[in-house]
């Protein structure tokens, strides 16, 4: 069943590749859907609305890392992988369908450039992919494994939680799989339904020994991915797949590192702290929310991108909450047991005397991720806006 | 049976061909070998043949299901009989007296250590133990056929491999006692050994997880091009896990120099093999994955040695995985938490202990050559018992590691969050120290 569903989506996305290559505009998803179902105009409208639940706004061009080039997110991922293969002869990239370039085009051209013993397909088996990656890392190779969708990472849960995360600890540091990185497309995509939309970071946040990282843009993606690959701990790197083509900005050509376990303040504010990560985060959806709050309510929002889910840093968030006295956390994953709960409890513990209102969590509902109801499911800007309104008048 | 025989014949041909190749050519072949047997036939629509990409086969015009052959399964390769006589001289590995004595001493030393540590668990001196009774031959025979640089991934009943590679008794004991000398820093349950120096990857409890990991390590080793192989041990029960399927398939499709070594001892805790599988054991699965496979008598240390030696040679030369299924019998209980008389008869256990044991069989072989006498046996028993007891007493006296080590190695670096928890623990301990067993731990 799972593989049939995957094949369907694969087909859809290879269409996307053909129509979307090089264009990299925000409307790629909508436009592609038009081509796929020309007969149903109402359906097209709905789909377009799903995909555009936020507007990608590029970060200011980073100048500190040398010359830049316009890239979307899948291209910046390819660029990071390219540097890694060029600089580290032990590095290998593997997973389902990575050899021809990947179903999201993240590995295009790498096999031709570096050889089929370094960029190769594996059998269709997630527990095998992660187990194989652990073994390669144990034997000293830099292993970059791809899980085709974050939704299909669960067959490898045992290898990640019981093995990868505990390798160094249980062996007394005799052995480790620190040179393993697992990449996986993540988050909603407008029409991905139950198994092409999930945000499973909270399942992994409960697991000491691994790092979980989620970028918000092409620039962050390249810098954070290179950090993950260089880091001497097993890392899971979730790539917001809705940004693969939608997000285009100037990305440094040379390799550069963005440190893990550091949150980033994207916009200073004084009344409310907004925390998110991935595509839901401040600079996209929450930035719009902040603008709305400023315009309609005169409320000044401070926006923070958490970037690293585990091991996460409390410092930046707490410093902000001490200043603003209010905190809103938003994520797409279901609310119960979501990572917002962890942030919320920790901030409450650290900033009890500074809090002016209960901490607000605007998250997905406690249901599976639905197909046709996606516009009602996602914690969009209106839900966030309303939460801010209530917090301010608390 | 016919199928098996013709398969053997085919392998025989391969053997000879490979033997004819010069070593240098073999090396060149390593990196980018394209095994003709693994390739499908090229597409040619003019032929009146099946053109399906998924398999290379002829059409057949009658309906016939392929019958599994479980009554007359893959034969069990054996070099010496139960009395230690070599059956076919061409298969005699011709090991020197020193080598054979070393085999015997390592097997019996393991046996002695097992008895003492088993008893110590019964007395509550260590928390847990798993013996290796009846499977000593599989460990020593296979370990001896490997290069010391070959990476070993094990399950938990392969202590003899470490013993053969020279892991000190003190280190075995340190791990079981989780004392301050334990290389694993006292974090895992007993018998979860590991040694970086001896290329023995630390054991973990989740079954079969090491199987796809071994494939990944073998792939990395292949790319290193240093003539190393990987061996991966597992029981027949673990072979039912999804990870076994993953590891077999990955190693075949990715052409990994890897030996899968299955210890089929008849039981997974209480579950007999007829509740574990319905095919012809584990060896019969190998060809389904495109893997060269063999079944050996696990109580015959020479049969195990020969099979492993040849599998190792070819795995490294040809970059392909091999499967060895060693048939044996788990004479001891599954672990110290298990009483096996609840699910199997004492007679059955006695047969394997008294009449078909790897240690006694090798002893017959040695006695027949006048390499070993009753006196040698008595003095070796005495001496091995003494060395084990001495290590045991040293380990027992040693303190446990500093509790600080609970927090290190979670990540390579100490994270701020963990550091906070570490400090919090010590603050607590300072205030409530009388409620914690500090006297047993290194300060």
TrEMBL record, chain A:
One of its GO terms (molecular function) is branched-chain 2-oxo acid dehydrogenase activity. It is found in: Mitochondrion matrix. Its EC number is 1.2.4.4. It catalyses: N(6)-[(R)-lipoyl]-L-lysyl-[protein] + 3-methyl-2-oxobutanoate + H(+) = N(6)-[(R)-S(8)-2-methylpropanoyldihydrolipoyl]-L-lysyl-[protein] + CO2. CDD domains: TPP_PYR_E1-PDHc-beta_like. Its cofactor is thiamine diphosphate. Its main location: mitochondrion. Residues 71-246 form the Transketolase-like pyrimidine-binding domain. It holds the Pfam family Transketolase_C. The keyword rRNA-binding does not apply. Keywords: Mitochondrion, Oxidoreductase, Transit peptide. The keyword RNA-binding does not apply. Together with BCKDHA forms the heterotetrameric E1 subunit of the mitochondrial branched-chain alpha-ketoacid dehydrogenase (BCKD) complex. The BCKD complex catalyzes the multi-step oxidative decarboxylation of alpha-ketoacids derived from the branched-chain amino-acids valine, leucine and isoleucine producing CO2 and acyl-CoA which is subsequently utilized to produce energy. The E1 subunit catalyzes the first step with the decarboxylation of the alpha-ketoacid forming an enzyme-product intermediate. Heterotetramer of 2 alpha/BCKDHA and 2 beta chains/BCKDHB that forms the branched-chain alpha-keto acid decarboxylase (E1) component of the BCKD complex. The branched-chain alpha-ketoacid dehydrogenase is a large complex composed of three major building blocks E1, E2 and E3. It is organized around E2, a 24-meric cubic core composed of DBT, to which are associated 6 to 12 copies of E1, and approximately 6 copies of the dehydrogenase E3, a DLD dimer. This is 2-oxoisovalerate dehydrogenase subunit beta, mitochondrial. It comes from Cottoperca gobio. The lineage of its organism: Eukaryota, Metazoa, Chordata, Craniata, Vertebrata. The gene is bckdhb.
UniProtKB/TrEMBL annotation, chain B:
The keyword Transit peptide applies. Its main location: mitochondrion. The lineage of its organism: Eukaryota, Metazoa, Chordata, Craniata, Vertebrata. Heterotetramer of 2 alpha/BCKDHA and 2 beta chains/BCKDHB that forms the branched-chain alpha-keto acid decarboxylase (E1) component of the BCKD complex. The branched-chain alpha-ketoacid dehydrogenase is a large complex composed of three major building blocks E1, E2 and E3. It is organized around E2, a 24-meric cubic core composed of DBT, to which are associated 6 to 12 copies of E1, and approximately 6 copies of the dehydrogenase E3, a DLD dimer. Interacts with PPM1K. One of its GO terms (biological process) is branched-chain amino acid catabolic process. Residues 105-404 form the Dehydrogenase E1 component domain. It is found in: Mitochondrion matrix. This is 2-oxoisovalerate dehydrogenase subunit alpha. The gene is bckdha. Keywords: Metal-binding, Mitochondrion, Oxidoreductase, Potassium, Thiamine pyrophosphate, Transit peptide. GO terms for cellular component: mitochondrial matrix. Together with BCKDHB forms the heterotetrameric E1 subunit of the mitochondrial branched-chain alpha-ketoacid dehydrogenase (BCKD) complex. The BCKD complex catalyzes the multi-step oxidative decarboxylation of alpha-ketoacids derived from the branched-chain amino-acids valine, leucine and isoleucine producing CO2 and acyl-CoA which is subsequently utilized to produce energy. The E1 subunit catalyzes the first step with the decarboxylation of the alpha-ketoacid forming an enzyme-product intermediate. Transmembrane segments: none annotated. InterPro entries: Alpha-ketoacid_DH_E1_comp, DH_E1, THDP-binding. Its cofactor is thiamine diphosphate. One of its GO terms (molecular function) is metal ion binding. Belongs to the BCKDHA family. Its EC number is 1.2.4.4. It comes from Cottoperca gobio (Frogmouth). Pfam families: E1_dh. It catalyses: N(6)-[(R)-lipoyl]-L-lysyl-[protein] + 3-methyl-2-oxobutanoate + H(+) = N(6)-[(R)-S(8)-2-methylpropanoyldihydrolipoyl]-L-lysyl-[protein] + CO2.
């Amino acid at each position: 069943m799972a593989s049939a569903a995957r094949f369907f989506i694969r087909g859809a996305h290879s269409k996307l590749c053909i129509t979307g290559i090089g264009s990299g505009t925000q409307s790629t998803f909508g436009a592609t859907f038009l081509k796929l179902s020309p007969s149903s105009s109402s359906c097209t409208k709905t789909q377009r609305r799903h995909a555009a639940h936020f507007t990608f706004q590029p970060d200011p061009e980073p100048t500190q890392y040398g010359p830049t080039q316009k890239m979307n997110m899948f291209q910046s991922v390819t660029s990071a992988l390219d540097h890694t293969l060029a600089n580290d002869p032990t590095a290998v990239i593997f997973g389902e369908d990575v050899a021809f370039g990947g179903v999201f085009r993240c590995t295009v051209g790498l096999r031709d450039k570096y050889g089929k013993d370094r960029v190769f397909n594996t059998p269709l088996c997630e527990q095998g992919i992660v187990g194989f990656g652990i073994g390669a890392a144990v034997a000293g190779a830099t292993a970059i494994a791809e899980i085709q969708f974050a939704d299909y990472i669960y067959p490898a849960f045992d290898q990640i939680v019981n093995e990868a995360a505990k390798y160094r600890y249980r062996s007394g540091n005799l052995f480790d799989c620190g040179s393993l990185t697992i990449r996986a497309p993540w988050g909603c995509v407008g029409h991905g339904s139950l198994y092409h939309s999930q945000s499973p970071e909270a399942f992994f946040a409960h697991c000491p020994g691994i790092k979980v990282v989620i970028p918000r843009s092409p620039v962050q993606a390249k810098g954070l991915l290179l950090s993950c690959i260089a880091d001497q701990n097993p890392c899971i790197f979730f790539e917001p797949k809705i940004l693969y083509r939608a997000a285009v900005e100037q990305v440094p050509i040379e390799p550069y590192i963005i440190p893990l376990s550091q949150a980033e303040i994207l916009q200073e504010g004084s009344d409310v702290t907004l925390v998110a990560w991935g595509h839901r985060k401040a600079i996209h959806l929450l930035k719009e929310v902040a603008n709305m709050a400023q315009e309609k309510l005169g409320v000044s929002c401070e926006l923070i991108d958490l970037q690293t889910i585990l091991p996460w840093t409390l410092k930046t968030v707490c410093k902000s909450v001490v200043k603003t006295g209010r905190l809103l956390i938003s994520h797409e994953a279901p609310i119960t047991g979501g990572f917002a709960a962890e942030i919320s409890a920790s901030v409450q513990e650290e900033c009890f005397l500074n809090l002016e209102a209960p901490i607000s969590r605007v998250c997905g509902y406690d249901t599976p991720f639905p197909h046709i109801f996606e516009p009602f499911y996602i914690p969009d800007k209106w839900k966030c806006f309303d939460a801010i309104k209530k917090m301010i008048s608390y | 049976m016919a199928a098996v025989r013709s398969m053997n014949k085919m392998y025989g041909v391969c053997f000879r061909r490979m033997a004819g190749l010069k070593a240098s050519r073999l090396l060149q072949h390593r990196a980018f070998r394209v095994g003709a047997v693994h390739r499908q036939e090229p597409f040619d629509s003019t032929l009146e043949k099946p053109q399906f990409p998924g398999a290379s086969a002829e059409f057949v015009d009658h309906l016939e299901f392929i019958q599994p052959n479980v009554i007359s399964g893959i034969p069990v390769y054996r070099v010496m009989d139960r009395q230690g006589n070599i059956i076919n001289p061409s298969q005699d590995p011709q090991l020197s007296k020193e080598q054979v004595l070393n085999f015997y001493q390592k097997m019996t030393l393991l046996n002695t250590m097992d008895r003492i540590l088993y008893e110590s668990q019964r007395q509550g001196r260590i928390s847990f133990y798993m013996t290796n009774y009846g499977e000593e031959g599989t460990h020593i025979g296979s370990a001896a056929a490997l290069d010391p640089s070959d990476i070993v991934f094990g399950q938990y009943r392969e202590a003899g491999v470490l013993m053969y590679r020279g892991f000190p008794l003190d280190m075995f004991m340190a791990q079981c006692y989780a004392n301050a000398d334990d290389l694993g820093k006292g974090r895992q349950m007993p018998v979860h050994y590991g040694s970086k120096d001896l290329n023995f990857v630390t054991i973990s409890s989740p079954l079969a997880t090491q199987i796809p990991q071994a494939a990944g390590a073998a792939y990395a080793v292949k790319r290193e091009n240093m003539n190393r192989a990987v061996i991966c041990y597992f029981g027949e029960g673990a072979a039912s896990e999804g990870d076994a399927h993953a590891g077999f398939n990955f190693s075949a499709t990715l052409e990994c120099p890897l030996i899968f070594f299955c210890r089929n001892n008849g039981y997974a805790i209480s579950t007999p093999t007829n509740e574990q599988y319905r095919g012809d054991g584990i060896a019969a699965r190998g060809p389904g994955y495109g893997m060269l496979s063999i079944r050996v008598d696990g109580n015959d240390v020479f049969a195990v040695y020969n099979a492993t030696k040849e599998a190792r040679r070819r795995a490294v030369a040809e970059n392909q995985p091999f499967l060895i299924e060693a048939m044996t019998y788990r004479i001891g209980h599954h672990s110290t938490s298990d009483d096996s008389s609840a699910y199997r008869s004492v007679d059955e256990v006695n047969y394997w202990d008294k009449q078909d044991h790897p240690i006694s069989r090798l002893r017959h072989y040695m006695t027949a050559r006048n390499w070993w006498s009753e006196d040698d046996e008595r003095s070796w028993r005495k001496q091995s018992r003494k060395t084990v007891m001495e290590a045991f007493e040293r380990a027992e006296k040693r303190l446990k590691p500093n509790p600080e080590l609970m927090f290190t190695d979670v990540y390579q670096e100490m994270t701020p969050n963990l550091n906070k928890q570490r400090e919090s623990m010590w603050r607590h301990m300072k205030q409530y120290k009388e409620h914690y067993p500090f006297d047993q731990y290194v300060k």
